[in-house]
Amino acid sequence: MTDNFQDQYSKFLYIWFGQFISIIGTGLTIFALGVYVYQLTGTASSYVFILMCAFLPPILLKPYGGILADRHDRRIMMVFGDLGSTLGLLFIFFMMVKGNIELWQVYLGISVSSIFSAFQEPAYKALVTDLLTRDQYAKASGLMQLASSAQYLLSPLLAGVLLSLLDIKFIFLIDVSTLLIASFIVIWIRNILGEIPVNRQETNFMEEFKEGFQEFSKNTGVVHLVITTMIILFFVGLLQSLFVPMLLNLESVKTVGISQSLCASGMIIGSLFIGIFGSRSGHVTMLSIALFLSGLFFAGLGLSANIILITLAGFLFFAMLPFINTPIEVLIRTNIDNQKQGRVWSIISTTTYVGSILAFAVAGFLADALFDPLLKPDGVLADSIGFLIGTGSGRGIAFMFIVAGLMISIISLFIWKNSRIKRLEDVEKQNRVMSLQL
Prior knowledge:
The chain starts with a helix and ends with a helix. Helix 5 packs antiparallel against helix 9 (253-277) and helix 8 (220-248) packs across helix 15 (419-437). The relative contact order is 0.13. The protein is built from 15 helices and no strands. The chain is globular and about 70 Å long. It is mostly helical. The protein has two domains: 1-192 and 205-210, Up-down Bundle (Growth Hormone, Chain: A); 220-438, Growth Hormone, Chain: A (Up-down Bundle).
């Protein structure tokens, strides 16, 4: 029986590798299109709209993707999502080859590609429960986070090099190739393992969505964890939106790029640690400690104008993220009915990413209209907070990071004292004991 579980894990690793390279390909496209549109228009709004086209459709459609992931073979859903994503990329490619491509065509193509990803991600997350044992969840979660972080660590570096050697059109072909490879791997594994039984109930989408929402909302501990994740993603969204503007007031573009890559490498280290060693117990404790430390490191981003200290704080912050994401995923996964995991994960994903969308919507206003004026040389806080962290352009953003970091640390205390969240771990421990007895 153990050998069979190990064989299942090895098959998961093949699927994970395919998704790993496809995520890198997606990162190449997003980075390249962002640079292309910004150079074409010279406006930040056009760059932000690329991000919205890439991330908003999946957020809105994931509940439907989750329902389909529970209704059909999750591997087929992954292939459907990956192959469908190539359509938008090929549309942009052919429009560029034709010449005189317009912005609306770029936005349309990236939107079509992202729409199909809404059907892929819930199926991928739910497939973990189909293939692996409970003791393997944490390792799988760490590896999946490793793949996700590659989009921010490897893709910008690779895209920067490739754009200096190749025309942007070939970036899309590279992305298409990675999606095809990922699809072929999933099809190959499906042929080896055969079909996985699916509970197909003759219900409509709204009924299944309602069932998924009821499964999600009936456990208050799960609800509290999801709300916590949404708040964390709001603060991370502020970092994503404002980190580069803050650094550009201090250093050159090249130095900013290097700093970004070094900060993102922290997530790689944390994900590798969990992927290799796993995490079998103490998930609430791990989550609370990691949140508290990450808040301190987040605040550290704003305490100094020295690029070395900022990069070190950023590295440590991102290194903590896998130790936050893993216990959240494990605690939720072990408290949700497997037959409803696809639709529940889609609801959870949609809910949590509201935090990021809100951050993108308000970050510019908060920085330009509120925090930056406070830290101008003649600002209200110039002689108090400004004495500690400095005044001038970008120091208002630094103050935002300090406030956001302290808020995250306060949230960790809420997690530590939350009895409902602690009960999630009791259920997980019971399930692990039962699994060992079997």
